[in-house]
Design a protein that fits this description.
The chain is built from 12 helices and no strands. The protein is mostly helical. Helix 3 packs parallel to helix 5, helix 4 runs antiparallel to helix 5 and helix 5 runs antiparallel to helix 11. The two termini are about 35 Å apart. The model has no long low-confidence stretch (mean pLDDT about 90).
Protein backbone atom coordinates (compact mmCIF):
# COMPACT_ATOMS: atom_id res chain seq x y z
CA UNK A 1 0.00 0.00 0.00
CA UNK A 2 2.91 2.34 0.77
CA UNK A 3 4.38 1.77 -2.68
CA UNK A 4 1.09 2.37 -4.48
CA UNK A 5 0.49 5.51 -2.42
CA UNK A 6 3.94 6.74 -3.40
CA UNK A 7 3.01 6.40 -7.07
CA UNK A 8 -0.18 8.41 -6.50
CA UNK A 9 1.04 11.30 -4.40
CA UNK A 10 4.59 10.84 -3.19
CA UNK A 11 5.78 10.45 0.39
CA UNK A 12 2.84 12.07 2.28
CA UNK A 13 0.22 10.04 0.43
CA UNK A 14 2.27 6.87 0.88
CA UNK A 15 2.49 7.21 4.66
CA UNK A 16 -1.15 8.23 5.00
CA UNK A 17 -2.35 5.35 2.81
CA UNK A 18 -0.23 2.80 4.68
CA UNK A 19 -1.47 4.03 8.05
CA UNK A 20 -5.14 4.22 7.09
CA UNK A 21 -4.99 0.77 5.52
CA UNK A 22 -3.07 -0.90 8.34
CA UNK A 23 -5.50 0.41 10.98
CA UNK A 24 -8.70 -0.04 8.98
CA UNK A 25 -11.09 -2.02 11.20
CA UNK A 26 -12.47 -4.16 8.37
CA UNK A 27 -8.97 -4.97 7.11
CA UNK A 28 -7.83 -5.89 10.62
CA UNK A 29 -10.84 -8.13 11.17
CA UNK A 30 -10.71 -10.01 7.88
CA UNK A 31 -6.93 -10.11 7.66
CA UNK A 32 -6.74 -11.99 10.96
CA UNK A 33 -9.45 -14.52 10.20
CA UNK A 34 -8.44 -18.03 9.14
CA UNK A 35 -9.93 -17.54 5.69
CA UNK A 36 -8.72 -16.46 2.26
CA UNK A 37 -9.07 -12.70 2.65
CA UNK A 38 -5.55 -12.14 4.01
CA UNK A 39 -3.91 -13.80 1.01
CA UNK A 40 -6.38 -12.06 -1.30
CA UNK A 41 -5.38 -8.61 -0.03
CA UNK A 42 -1.66 -9.37 0.03
CA UNK A 43 -1.31 -10.78 -3.47
CA UNK A 44 -3.97 -8.44 -4.87
CA UNK A 45 -2.05 -5.41 -3.66
CA UNK A 46 1.19 -6.97 -4.87
CA UNK A 47 -0.24 -7.24 -8.39
CA UNK A 48 -1.50 -3.63 -8.23
CA UNK A 49 1.89 -2.39 -7.01
CA UNK A 50 3.72 -4.32 -9.72
CA UNK A 51 1.44 -2.84 -12.36
CA UNK A 52 1.88 0.69 -10.99
CA UNK A 53 5.68 0.40 -10.85
CA UNK A 54 5.81 -1.14 -14.32
CA UNK A 55 3.70 1.70 -15.74
CA UNK A 56 5.86 4.34 -14.03
CA UNK A 57 9.14 2.83 -15.23
CA UNK A 58 7.90 2.51 -18.80
CA UNK A 59 6.81 6.16 -18.73
CA UNK A 60 10.38 7.15 -17.76
CA UNK A 61 11.87 4.92 -20.44
CA UNK A 62 13.61 2.72 -17.83
CA UNK A 63 14.34 -0.96 -18.41
CA UNK A 64 11.37 -2.91 -17.09
CA UNK A 65 11.21 -6.21 -19.01
CA UNK A 66 11.59 -8.27 -15.81
CA UNK A 67 8.47 -6.66 -14.34
CA UNK A 68 6.24 -8.31 -16.95
CA UNK A 69 6.79 -11.87 -15.62
CA UNK A 70 6.62 -10.44 -12.08
CA UNK A 71 3.21 -8.98 -12.92
CA UNK A 72 2.04 -12.31 -14.36
CA UNK A 73 3.25 -14.19 -11.27
CA UNK A 74 1.61 -11.79 -8.81
CA UNK A 75 -1.68 -11.94 -10.74
CA UNK A 76 -1.57 -15.75 -10.76
CA UNK A 77 -0.95 -15.83 -7.01
CA UNK A 78 -3.79 -13.38 -6.41
CA UNK A 79 -6.26 -15.48 -8.40
CA UNK A 80 -5.08 -18.66 -6.71
CA UNK A 81 -5.59 -17.09 -3.28
CA UNK A 82 -9.24 -16.33 -4.04
CA UNK A 83 -11.15 -16.02 -7.30
CA UNK A 84 -12.61 -12.68 -6.22
CA UNK A 85 -9.12 -11.21 -6.71
CA UNK A 86 -10.16 -10.64 -10.32
CA UNK A 87 -10.71 -6.85 -9.76
CA UNK A 88 -7.13 -6.57 -8.49
CA UNK A 89 -5.78 -8.45 -11.50
CA UNK A 90 -7.89 -6.58 -14.05
CA UNK A 91 -7.07 -3.31 -12.28
CA UNK A 92 -3.32 -3.98 -12.43
CA UNK A 93 -3.45 -4.83 -16.13
CA UNK A 94 -5.75 -1.89 -16.78
CA UNK A 95 -3.36 0.45 -14.96
CA UNK A 96 -0.50 -0.55 -17.27
CA UNK A 97 -2.68 -0.24 -20.37
CA UNK A 98 -4.13 3.19 -19.57
CA UNK A 99 -0.66 4.47 -18.67
CA UNK A 100 0.57 3.27 -22.06
CA UNK A 101 -2.34 5.03 -23.76
CA UNK A 102 -1.64 8.30 -21.92
CA UNK A 103 1.22 9.11 -24.31
CA UNK A 104 -1.11 8.99 -27.34
CA UNK A 105 1.35 7.02 -29.46
CA UNK A 106 -0.22 4.21 -31.51
CA UNK A 107 2.95 2.16 -31.58
CA UNK A 108 3.25 2.39 -27.81
CA UNK A 109 -0.40 1.46 -27.31
CA UNK A 110 -0.13 -1.61 -29.56
CA UNK A 111 3.08 -2.73 -27.87
CA UNK A 112 1.48 -2.35 -24.45
CA UNK A 113 -1.61 -4.28 -25.52
CA UNK A 114 0.48 -7.11 -26.96
CA UNK A 115 2.60 -7.35 -23.82
CA UNK A 116 -0.52 -7.37 -21.64
CA UNK A 117 -2.08 -10.18 -23.67
CA UNK A 118 1.04 -12.30 -23.16
CA UNK A 119 1.11 -11.36 -19.47
CA UNK A 120 -2.56 -12.29 -19.09
CA UNK A 121 -1.96 -15.68 -20.71
CA UNK A 122 1.02 -16.28 -18.41
CA UNK A 123 -1.09 -15.30 -15.39
CA UNK A 124 -3.85 -17.69 -16.48
CA UNK A 125 -1.40 -20.55 -16.92
CA UNK A 126 0.12 -19.75 -13.55
CA UNK A 127 -3.32 -19.80 -11.94
CA UNK A 128 -4.00 -23.25 -13.43
CA UNK A 129 -0.60 -24.49 -12.27
CA UNK A 130 -1.41 -23.34 -8.73
CA UNK A 131 -4.86 -24.98 -8.79
CA UNK A 132 -4.51 -28.80 -8.80
CA UNK A 133 -8.29 -29.23 -9.00
CA UNK A 134 -8.15 -27.84 -12.55
CA UNK A 135 -5.37 -30.03 -13.90
CA UNK A 136 -7.44 -32.91 -15.27
CA UNK A 137 -9.37 -30.75 -17.75
CA UNK A 138 -8.87 -26.97 -17.22
CA UNK A 139 -11.64 -25.68 -19.56
CA UNK A 140 -14.24 -28.09 -18.16
CA UNK A 141 -13.20 -27.52 -14.55
CA UNK A 142 -13.32 -23.73 -14.97
CA UNK A 143 -16.83 -24.12 -16.39
CA UNK A 144 -17.77 -26.23 -13.37
CA UNK A 145 -16.23 -23.62 -11.09
CA UNK A 146 -18.31 -20.81 -12.56
CA UNK A 147 -21.49 -22.89 -12.36
CA UNK A 148 -20.91 -23.94 -8.75
CA UNK A 149 -20.02 -20.39 -7.74
CA UNK A 150 -23.28 -19.11 -9.21
CA UNK A 151 -25.22 -21.84 -7.41
CA UNK A 152 -23.46 -20.91 -4.16
CA UNK A 153 -24.37 -17.24 -4.53
CA UNK A 154 -27.99 -18.13 -5.30
CA UNK A 155 -28.17 -20.35 -2.21
CA UNK A 156 -26.60 -17.65 -0.03
CA UNK A 157 -29.08 -15.06 -1.26
CA UNK A 158 -31.96 -17.45 -0.54
CA UNK A 159 -30.69 -18.44 2.90
CA UNK A 160 -29.37 -15.18 4.34
CA UNK A 161 -31.40 -12.37 2.75
CA UNK A 162 -34.84 -11.44 1.46
CA UNK A 163 -33.60 -11.43 -2.12
CA UNK A 164 -30.91 -9.74 -4.21
CA UNK A 165 -29.78 -6.39 -2.87
CA UNK A 166 -31.54 -3.46 -4.65
CA UNK A 167 -29.43 -1.52 -7.14
CA UNK A 168 -29.72 1.72 -5.16
CA UNK A 169 -28.34 -0.03 -2.09
CA UNK A 170 -25.43 -1.38 -4.12
CA UNK A 171 -24.63 2.14 -5.34
CA UNK A 172 -24.89 3.54 -1.82
CA UNK A 173 -22.58 0.78 -0.61
CA UNK A 174 -19.78 2.10 -2.82
CA UNK A 175 -19.68 5.21 -0.61
CA UNK A 176 -20.64 3.70 2.76
CA UNK A 177 -18.63 0.46 2.81
CA UNK A 178 -15.16 2.04 3.01
CA UNK A 179 -15.48 4.13 6.19
CA UNK A 180 -19.09 4.43 7.36
CA UNK A 181 -20.13 0.83 8.07
CA UNK A 182 -18.97 -0.94 11.23
CA UNK A 183 -17.17 -4.27 10.82
CA UNK A 184 -19.46 -7.18 9.97
CA UNK A 185 -18.41 -10.05 12.23
CA UNK A 186 -20.81 -12.61 10.76
CA UNK A 187 -23.22 -13.02 7.86
CA UNK A 188 -25.74 -15.38 9.50
CA UNK A 189 -28.24 -13.22 11.47
CA UNK A 190 -28.83 -16.04 13.98
CA UNK A 191 -25.33 -15.56 15.38
CA UNK A 192 -26.45 -12.31 17.00
CA UNK A 193 -28.46 -14.40 19.48
CA UNK A 194 -25.45 -16.33 20.83
CA UNK A 195 -24.12 -14.53 23.90
CA UNK A 196 -20.61 -16.09 23.81
CA UNK A 197 -20.14 -14.69 20.30
CA UNK A 198 -21.48 -11.23 21.14
CA UNK A 199 -19.27 -11.09 24.25
CA UNK A 200 -16.18 -11.85 22.18
CA UNK A 201 -17.18 -9.17 19.68
CA UNK A 202 -17.65 -6.59 22.43
CA UNK A 203 -14.27 -7.44 23.94
CA UNK A 204 -12.58 -7.18 20.55
CA UNK A 205 -14.17 -3.86 19.58
CA UNK A 206 -13.18 -2.38 22.95
CA UNK A 207 -9.52 -3.28 22.43
CA UNK A 208 -6.94 -1.20 20.48
CA UNK A 209 -6.52 -4.16 18.11
CA UNK A 210 -9.80 -3.22 16.41
CA UNK A 211 -8.34 -0.15 14.65
CA UNK A 212 -10.02 3.22 14.31
CA UNK A 213 -13.80 3.41 14.58
CA UNK A 214 -16.08 3.28 11.54
CA UNK A 215 -18.87 5.79 11.14
CA UNK A 216 -19.22 8.86 13.33
CA UNK A 217 -17.07 11.90 12.79
CA UNK A 218 -14.00 9.84 11.85
CA UNK A 219 -15.89 7.91 9.20
CA UNK A 220 -17.42 11.04 7.72
CA UNK A 221 -14.05 12.83 7.67
CA UNK A 222 -12.46 9.91 5.86
CA UNK A 223 -15.37 9.72 3.40
CA UNK A 224 -15.10 13.46 2.70
CA UNK A 225 -11.34 13.09 2.17
CA UNK A 226 -11.99 10.15 -0.18
CA UNK A 227 -14.38 12.23 -2.29
CA UNK A 228 -12.00 15.20 -2.25
CA UNK A 229 -9.16 12.96 -3.38
CA UNK A 230 -11.27 11.53 -6.19
CA UNK A 231 -11.99 15.04 -7.44
CA UNK A 232 -8.65 16.65 -6.63
CA UNK A 233 -6.55 14.11 -8.50
CA UNK A 234 -8.19 15.35 -11.71
CA UNK A 235 -7.42 19.02 -11.01
CA UNK A 236 -3.83 19.76 -12.10
CA UNK A 237 -3.29 22.47 -9.48
CA UNK A 238 -4.35 20.12 -6.68
CA UNK A 239 -2.84 16.85 -7.87
CA UNK A 240 0.28 15.91 -5.85
CA UNK A 241 2.03 14.63 -8.98
CA UNK A 242 2.05 16.24 -12.41
CA UNK A 243 1.85 12.94 -14.26
CA UNK A 244 -1.69 11.89 -15.24
CA UNK A 245 -0.88 8.19 -15.55
CA UNK A 246 -1.11 7.21 -11.83
CA UNK A 247 -4.46 8.99 -11.50
CA UNK A 248 -5.81 7.27 -14.60
CA UNK A 249 -4.48 3.90 -13.43
CA UNK A 250 -6.11 4.24 -10.02
CA UNK A 251 -9.36 5.32 -11.68
CA UNK A 252 -9.42 2.29 -13.98
CA UNK A 253 -8.74 -0.03 -11.04
CA UNK A 254 -11.51 1.62 -9.04
CA UNK A 255 -14.00 1.49 -11.92
CA UNK A 256 -13.42 -2.24 -12.42
CA UNK A 257 -13.89 -2.89 -8.70
CA UNK A 258 -17.06 -0.80 -8.51
CA UNK A 259 -18.57 -2.65 -11.48
CA UNK A 260 -17.94 -6.02 -9.83
CA UNK A 261 -19.52 -4.77 -6.58
CA UNK A 262 -22.60 -3.53 -8.41
CA UNK A 263 -23.02 -7.02 -9.84
CA UNK A 264 -22.94 -8.65 -6.40
CA UNK A 265 -26.42 -9.43 -5.00
CA UNK A 266 -25.20 -9.92 -1.41
CA UNK A 267 -24.68 -7.20 1.18
CA UNK A 268 -21.72 -8.95 2.75
CA UNK A 269 -18.92 -6.65 3.83
CA UNK A 270 -16.06 -8.99 3.05
CA UNK A 271 -17.17 -9.02 -0.59
CA UNK A 272 -16.41 -5.28 -0.63
CA UNK A 273 -12.81 -5.78 0.54
CA UNK A 274 -11.35 -5.14 -2.96
CA UNK A 275 -12.78 -1.60 -2.81
CA UNK A 276 -11.04 -0.62 0.44
CA UNK A 277 -7.49 -0.13 -0.95
CA UNK A 278 -8.72 2.31 -3.60
CA UNK A 279 -10.88 4.14 -1.06
CA UNK A 280 -7.90 4.47 1.28
CA UNK A 281 -5.71 5.77 -1.55
CA UNK A 282 -8.28 8.41 -2.50
CA UNK A 283 -8.67 9.42 1.16
CA UNK A 284 -4.89 9.68 1.56
CA UNK A 285 -4.72 11.82 -1.59
CA UNK A 286 -7.50 14.01 -0.18
CA UNK A 287 -5.60 14.58 3.07
CA UNK A 288 -2.44 15.30 1.05
CA UNK A 289 -4.31 17.96 -0.91
CA UNK A 290 -5.62 19.52 2.32
CA UNK A 291 -2.09 19.52 3.76
CA UNK A 292 -0.74 21.28 0.68
CA UNK A 293 -3.46 23.92 0.93
CA UNK A 294 -2.54 24.59 4.56
CA UNK A 295 1.17 24.85 3.76
CA UNK A 296 0.59 27.20 0.83
CA UNK A 297 -1.72 29.46 2.81
CA UNK A 298 0.74 29.62 5.71
CA UNK A 299 3.44 30.92 3.34
CA UNK A 300 1.31 33.83 2.11
Amino acid sequence: MFGIGWQIGGRPTAYLAAGLFALHPVILLNGRRAVQEGALLFFGLLSALTGAVLAARRARGAVSWYLWPALAASCALALASKHSALPFVAGALGWVFIAGCAQFKLRRILATAAALIVTGIMAGLGFIALSPALWSDPPARIGDLLQIRQELIDSQVAAFSDGPMPVQDRIAGVFTNPFLRPPQFFEAPAWAEYEPITQQIQAYTASPLAGYSSGGIIGWMLTAAMILGGIGLYIPRWRPRRDWAPTLGLSVWTAITVITLLLSPLDWQRYALPLLPEAVLFAAAGFTIIGRWIVLRSKR
